[in-house]
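Minutes, project check-in
Item: structure for the 226-residue chain
Input as provided by the requester:
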Amino acid sequence: MIELKGINFSYSANRIFSNLNLEIKESCICSLVGRSGIGKSTFLYLIGGLLKPESGEVVVLGKNLDKENDISLSNYRNTTVGFIFQHFHLIDTLTVKENILIPHLFSRKAAGKEAALERLDMLVRELKIEDLVDRYPDSLSGGERQRTAIARALLNNPQILLADEPTGNLDSDSTEKILNILHAWQKDETSKSGRLLLMVTHDKNIAGKADRKLELSEDGLRDIDG
C-alpha cells in the first residue's frame, strides 16, 4: 500500500528526515508514536501528498506521488486518502454539514448528492453530532470540532485514513467510541482491496491496540513491540 524510499526532508535549515524508509504492504491499523516536534505530522503530510520530499520516493498504491501533477494529487487526496488534521482545519464560514460535505463537492469520483447526504446522516449519528449540523465551527467545543473533522475525513469512504491525534480533544469515554468507529471502518469487509488506518498518537494505550506500531525518533523509523 505505502512505500517510502530514501526520504529526505527539511524545514528551512532543520533536517527532519534523512534517508527515511518504510513499507506497509497490508491493510491494517498502524500507530505512530514519537516525541513532539520529531516530524510525525510531516510524515503524514508526505503520504497525503500535501508535501513533497527533497529526494526519495513516496509510493502509495503503486502511485509515485512526486510524479503526479496538482490535479492528480487533488483527486488522490479527495478519493483515496482521508485526513483527520490535528488542528481540524474547518472553514469558519461553513456549517458543520457544509464542512463535512467538502470532500464530496471537490471529488470527481464521489457518489451522487443523495448518496453523499445519506452517508453524512449516518456519520453524524455515529459521531453524535446530528444536533450540530447547522452550527458554525466557532460555536463548537474542541471535541465537537474533532468529531466534525472525523466525519469529513470519512465521507468519501477512502482506502487510506491518515489520522493526526484523532482523539486528542476527547474524554476517555468519547475516545473509546471514536476508536471503535475508526477500527470498524478499517475492518469493514465491503472494501475488497482493504483499508489502512495510519494514526499518530501520544497515547500508549491507543498505540498498543494497533496491528503494527511504529516509533519515529532522531535515529529514524522503527517497529516497536507492545
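Outcome recorded: The chain has a mean pLDDT of 92.
No further action items on this chain.
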